[in-house]
Specification:
By secondary structure, this protein is α/β, with parallel strands linked by helices. It folds into 3 domains: 301 residues, polyphosphate kinase like, CATH 3.30.1840; 183 residues, 2-Layer Sandwich (Endonuclease, Chain A), CATH 3.30.870; 184 residues, Endonuclease, Chain A, CATH 3.30.870.10. Helices cover 38% and strands 22% of the residues. The protein has 19 helices and 27 strands. Strands 14, 18, 19, 20, 21, 23, 24, 25, 26 and 27 form a 10-stranded mixed beta sheet that branches. Strands 10, 11, 12, 13, 15, 16, 17 and 22 form an 8-stranded mixed beta sheet that branches. Helix 8 links the parallel strand 8 and strand 9. The longest helix has 33 residues.
C-alpha cells in the first residue's frame, strides 16, 4: 500500500477505539511489577532490594484497600458500564486476579530463592523456630515471656464468644486447640501485635525469627490445660477508601474523623492465608469474614513482606545499602561561615529552581518558610499542606510566625489518603497557635504545592512564591525527586493571591495570568498546549513534546497526544506509574515513545516541555494527567521562563531520556521491557547522573566563591 493510500486511513483512525487505552489497574500493577524487578536485581545493594520488596507489598496493600475495593463496590451496585478501555468493572476485577496471583508467587520466590540466600551470604539469617539451636530457643523463650506474652490477648470463638473483629492489615494466628476432657477442637484468634518488631533479633544483630513463629511456639502459655493442635497465620485487607458527603457535613474536620472510625470496619476485600492452613479453617475464616473465593489469596511463604522495611532499619550494615546522599546547597544560596544568604534578596535578583533531593530541601524551601517566619518585614504567609512529616520544621515555622503576630493562612487537606489523622492533628495545632486554617473546597482535594509570602519593602509590598511538585515534607524530600520554583514575579504573586482567596473565601476567578489551575482550566490548558505544537509543526519548526509525570490516565489528554503524533510531532513520555496511552500504533502513535524510571529515588516531579523548533515552553507543577487531578483536585502548574532554569529542566529531561539502566520501555502490546545499554555504550543511570551534576555544580560554586574572595 502506498503512502498516499495510508495517510487518509491514519487520519480517520477512531481515537475512541478501546484498543488505544490500556486498562488503568493493569498498568498500575505493571508499575508495581517494575518495583518487584528491582528487588530481584542482584546488582542492587542487598538492603535496597529488601526495601523494594517491602514497597511492592505495601503498594499492593493500598491497591486492594482503594482500587479493588472501589471496583467491588461498582460490581455490587450493578454497574456494567464499559470504560474507555472497553472493560466493565467485573472484567477488570477478573484481569486483576489473573495478574496478581502469579505476581505474588514471584514475590515469594524472589524473597525465598534470591534475597534470603543473599542475606545468608552476608551473614544475615531469617530463621524458622524449628531451625534454632538450644541457646537461640532459650533467647526466644525469654523474649516471649518478657516482651510478647504480656500484650497478647487470645480470643476464643464459641457460642458465648462471637468471632472477633479483625483490624485492617493486621497479622493474626488462627489457632486450633483441643480440650483433653471432651476431645473437642475449638478455634481461637491471636493477634500478632503490630507494636513489636515483626522480625525478632536473637541477640547477635544478624539472626532473626518472625514474631508469629515465636508466638506459635509458645501458645501453650496462652492456652494452659489445652492441647494446641495447630496455628496458621492469616491477614485481612479492608476497604479503606474514605467516602464523604461533604455538602452535607457541618464540620469537615469532624466528618473526616467520623469516617476514619467507620473505615476501621470496612468490608474485607482480601483474605491472605498461609498455604499450610487446612481447608476447614480457611472456610471458617471466609464464612465469618464474609469473603468469597475471588478475594482469597493463598501465600506459600511469609505474609506481609511490607514489614521487611522494619528489618532494614534494624540492620546496622551500611556496606549493604546505598551510600547516603545529602543534597547540595544551590550555588546562589551558599552563604559564608558567618552569615546565611538572605533568600528574599536572592530572589529579587532572579528566580530559583530547586530539584530535590539533589538540592537540599533544608537550605531552600524550608529556609524560605523559616526566614519568612523570622523576618519582621514579612506580614503574611499563606501555604497549602497536603502531606507533611511528623516533626515538621515547616509547621514549626508557621506556628512561630503566627505567635509573632504575622497573618498565617494554612490550607490543610484533611482528606489526604493515609494522612487524614496526622493532618487533623496538625490542623488543630496550627489553630491553637493562631493560624487561620481552612480545609479546602467542597468536593475537591487541595493537592497544589504552593506558598505565598507577603513582605513590606521600600516602595510598597512585594510577594514571594514557591510553586512545587512535591509536598512540604523534609523527610520525603530526601527520597522523592521533586522540583520547585521560587520567585518574586509579580504575576505569579498575583495569581497565588487569587488562588488562596478562592481556597479560603468565595472568590471564583477566571483564567490566571500565568499559572494553570485545576479543576477549571488545567485540562483545557494542557490540550491547548499540545494542539498548539501540532498546529505549528512543520519541517522548518518541527514539533516536539516531552512530558514527565507520575501517571497518564486522562482519555481527552491522550487523544490530544495521539492527534499530535498523527500530525508528525515527536513525543517522549516519561511516566513513572500508570500509562494508559498505547505507543507505536500505526497511524496513531508511531511518533510516541513511553518510558518509566524506577530506581533509588521515587520520580515524583512533573516537567512539561512543548516545543516548535527553538521555541520552547516549560511547566512544572503538582498535577498528573489523571481525571482525579484535573476534575477533583485543586492543582497548580506554573511556567518556568528563565533561560538558566529552563536549561536545567531540559538537562533533567535529557538525562532521563538517555537512561539505559533504570529505564523501562513500553511496547505497543502493553508490555514493559527494561532498557539495557548496547555493547560499548556508556551506562547512564538517571539518579546517579543527576547526583554527579549536582555535586559538580557545588564544587564549581565553591571554587568560584573562593576565587572571588581572593
Amino acid at each position: 500500500m502506498t503512502e498516499t493510500e495510508t495517510a487518509p486511513e491514519a487520519a480517520e483512525r477512531d481515537l475512541y477505539d478501546p484498543y488505544l487505552y490500556i486498562n488503568r489497574e493493569i498498568s498500575w500493577l505493571q508499575f508495581n511489577d517494575r518495583v518487584l524487578a528491582m528487588a530481584a536485581d542482584p546488582e542492587i545493594a542487598l538492603l535496597e532490594r529488601l526495601k523494594y520488596l517491602a514497597i511492592f507489598a505495601s503498594n499492593l496493600d493500598e491497591f486492594f484497600m482503594v482500587r479493588v475495593a472501589g471496583l467491588r463496590d461498582q460490581v455490587e451496585a450493578g454497574m456494567v458500564t464499559r470504560g474507555s478501555d472497553g472493560w466493565t468493572p467485573s472484567e477488570t476485577l477478573e484481569a486483576i486476579a489473573k495478574h496478581v496471583g502469579p505476581t505474588i508467587e514471584h514475590q515469594v520466590r524472589v524473597y525465598l530463592d534470591d534475597i534470603c540466600p543473599a542475606m545468608a551470604e552476608a551473614g544475615i539469617r531469617i530463621a524458622d523456630m524449628a531451625d534454632l539451636d538450644d541457646q537461640q530457643r532459650d533467647f526466644a523463650r525469654d523474649y516471649f515471656q518478657r516482651q510478647v506474652f504480656p500484650v497478647l490477648t487470645p480470643l476464643a470463638v464459641d457460642p458465648s464468644h462471637p468471632f472477633p473483629y479483625i483490624s485492617n492489615l493486621s497479622l493474626s494466628l488462627a489457632v486450633t486447640v483441643r480440650d483433653p476432657g471432651t476431645a473437642r477442637d475449638r478455634f481461637a484468634r491471636v493477634k500478632v501485635p503490630g507494636i513489636l518488631p515483626r522480625f525478632v533479633s536473637l541477640g547477635d544483630g544478624n539472626t532473626f525469627v518472625p514474631l508469629e513463629q515465636v508466638i506459635a511456639a509458645h501458645l501453650d502459655k496462652l492456652f494452659p490445660g489445652m492441647d494446641v493442635v495447630e496455628a496458621h497465620p492469616f491477614r485481612v485487607t479492608r476497604d479503606a477508601d474514605i467516602e464523604l458527603a461533604e455538602d452535607e457535613a457541618d464540620d469537615l474536620l469532624v466528618a473526616v474523623e467520623q469516617e476514619l472510625r467507620r473505615q476501621r470496619f470496612g468490608v474485607v476485600v482480601r483474605l491472605e492465608v498461609a498455604s499450610s492452613m487446612p481447608d476447614h479453617v480457611v472456610r471458617l475464616l471466609q464464612r465469618e469474614l464474609e469473603v468469597e473465593d475471588d478475594a482469597l489469596v493463598t501465600v506459600e511463604g511469609p505474609l506481609n513482606l511490607g514489614d521487611l522495611m522494619g528489618l532494614v532499619s534494624a540492620l546496622d550494615r551500611p556496606e549493604l545499602a546505598d551510600e547516603p546522599w545529602v543534597g547540595t546547597t544551590q550555588p546562589r544560596l551558599l552563604g559564608t561561615e558567618e552569615d546565611s544568604v538572605n533568600l528574599f534578596a536572592t530572589l529579587r535578583e532572579g528566580d530559583l529552581l530547586v530539584h530535590h533531593p539533589y538540592d537540599a530541601f533544608s537550605t531552600s524551601v524550608q529556609r524560605f518558610i523559616e526566614q519568612a517566619a523570622e523576618d519582621p518585614d514579612v506580614l503574611a504567609i499563606k501555604q497549602t499542606l497536603y502531606r507533611t512529616d511528623g516533626d515538621s520544621p515547616i509547621v514549626t515555622a508557621l506556628i512561630k510566625a503566627a505567635e509573632s503576630g504575622k497573618q498565617v493562612v494554612v490550607l490543610v487537606e484533611v482528606k489526604a489518603r493515609g494522612d487524614e489523622a496526622s493532618n487533623i492533628g496538625w490542623a488543630r495545632a496550627l489553630e491553637r497557635a493562631g493560624c487561620h486554617v481552612a480545609y479546602g473546597l467542597v468536593g475537591l482535594k487541595t493537592h497544589s504545592k504552593t506558598a505565598l509570602v507577603v513582605r513590606r519593602e521600600h516602595g510598597g509590598i512585594r510577594r514571594y512564591v514557591h510553586i512545587g511538585t512535591g509536598n512540604y515534607n523534609a523527610k520525603t524530600a530526601r527520597l522523592y525527586t521533586d522540583l520547585g520554583l521560587l520567585s518574586c514575579d509579580e504575576d505569579l504573586g498575583a495569581d497565588l493571591t487569587e488562588l488562596f482567596n478562592s481556597l479560603t473565601g468565595y472568590a471564583r476567578g477566571g483564567r490566571y495570568r500565568k499559572i494553570l489551575v485545576a479543576p477549571n482550566f488545567l485540562r483545557q490548558g494542557v490540550i491547548e498546549l499540545i494542539d498548539g505544537v501540532a498546529e505549528k509543526h512543520s519541517s522548518r519548526r518541527p514539533g516536539r513534546i516531552t512530558l514527565q509525570m507520575n501517571s497518564l490516565v486522562d482519555a481527552a489528554c491522550i487523544r490530544a497526544l495521539y492527534a499530535a503524533s498523527q500530525a508528525g510531532v515527536q513525543i517522549d513520555l516519561i511516566v513513572r506509574g500508570i500509562c494508559r496511552l498505547r505507543p507505536g500504533v500505526p497511524g496513531v502513535s508511531e511518533n510516541i515513545r513511553v518510558r518509566s524510571i524506577v530506581g533509588r529515588f521515587l520520580e515524583h516531579g512533573r516537567i512539561w516541555n512543548f516545543a516548535n523548533g527553538k521555541r520552547r515552553e516549560y511547566y512544572i507543577g503538582s498535577a498528573d494527567l489523571m481525571p482525579r487531578n484535573l476534575d477533583l483536585r485543586v492543582e497548580c502548574v506554573t511556567p518556568v521562563t528563565d533561560p538558566d532554569l529552563t536549561g536545567r529542566l531540559q538537562e533533567v529531561l535529557d538525562v532521563m531520556l538517555a537512561d539505559n539502566v533504570q529505564a523501562w520501555e513500553l511496547s505497543e502490546d502493553g508490555s514493559w521491557h527494561r532498557s539495557e545499554p548496547a555493547e560499548g555504550e556508556r551506562r547512564v543511570a538517571s539518579h546517579k547522573r543527576l547526583r554527579e551534576l549536582a555535586l559538580r555544580r557545588g564544587v564549581e560554586a565553591r571554587a568560584g566563591a573562593k576565587a572571588s574572595q581572593r
